[in-house]
Amino acid sequence: MCGRFALDYPESILKNWYTVDSFPDLFPRYNIAPLSDILVIRETESKREATMMRWGLVPKWIKDLKEAHVINNARAETISTKPMFKSVYRKRRCIIPASGFYEWQLLKDGKYKQPNFITAVDECPTSFDGIWEIATVDEKTIESCAIITTGCNDLMRPIHDRMPVILPPESFDTWLKPVEFPDDIMSFFLKPYKSELMQAWPVSTAVNKASNQGKQLIDPIPAA
After folding, report:
1. Residue 157 near residue 50 (C-beta atoms within 8 A)
2. For residues 68 and 56, what is the distance between their CA atoms, to the nearest angstrom?
3. Domain boundaries in the chain?
4. Each residue of 24-58: pLDDT tens digit?
5. Beta partners for 83?
6. Which residues are catalytic?
7. Dist. CA 95–CA 104, nearest whole Å
8. N or C: lower Cβ tally within 10 Å for the chain?
9. Residue 89: φ, ψ to 5°
10. How far is CA 173 from CA 17, 51, 147, 150, 192, in A?
């Protein structure tokens, strides 16, 4: 799963990495939680753009946000068949940029969860596979998104049994294209990322509280 992540790249790097001309105002964020507005890269019929969306998918049929569950993740294994996701997944795919993400490891005593920060070895932006939706609730237009998750790779296995799907740069163009592809092609984009391209280290439990911010949250600490 993915419940918290960070994004602290300058706009100049993101523009080059995602081939987008302009971005909304950005500032470093080290503890991004569900229901926050987050940066999303998507492709429309006319252009590729960067925009902000609610992290927590709001289905089209929701008429009252109080009725909406917080859907921050969608499972790769069921995304093409689950009614809530399948139509969105066909044509409204996106990329959610990150510097890395957090995952909590249940230690052997079964009582303590150690947070870890997971990021790219080469320090380049991490690109989560995502889906997005547009809904009208109380006459207000809401654009929202969810991160797609899959089974873990070897690096993640000691930490957690799931992880966000991470997209390599060579797949950006195809993934973002707002057209429907056969399932066998789409399944190519839903695999666990290569372990050798990732690194992880334990961090402070201060990240457990969503209101805590600051670069110190991603600093490594001695393992518990």
Report:
1. no
2. 9
3. 5-218
4. 999 999 999 999 999 999 998 889 999 999 999 99
5. none
6. 2, 103
7. 23
8. C
9. -60, -30
10. 12, 17, 18, 21, 19
Eight-state DSSP code of residue 188 = G
Checking DSSP bridges between strand 140-151 and strand 73-75, what pairing results, if any?
A: parallel
**Under 8 Å between Cβ of 175 and 93:** yes
What are the pLDDT digits (tens) for 160-189?
999 999 999 999 999 999 999 888 888 889
- Find the length of the chain: 224
Task: Count, in order, helices (H) and strands (E) of the chain.
Answer: 4, 12
For tokens 């080059």, the residue is 16
For residues 167 and 95, the answer to whether their CB atoms sit within 8 Å is yes
What would be the CATH architecture of the domain defined by 5-218? Alpha-Beta Complex (3.90)
**Looking at residue 65, what is its pLDDT?**
76
Q: In the numeric block, which tokens belong to residue 123?
A: 């320090």
56: DSSP letter: S
- Joined together, the tokens standing for residue 180 give 């429907």
- 6, 99 contact by CB (below 8 A): yes
The CB density around residue 168, as the number of other CB atoms within 10 Å, is 12
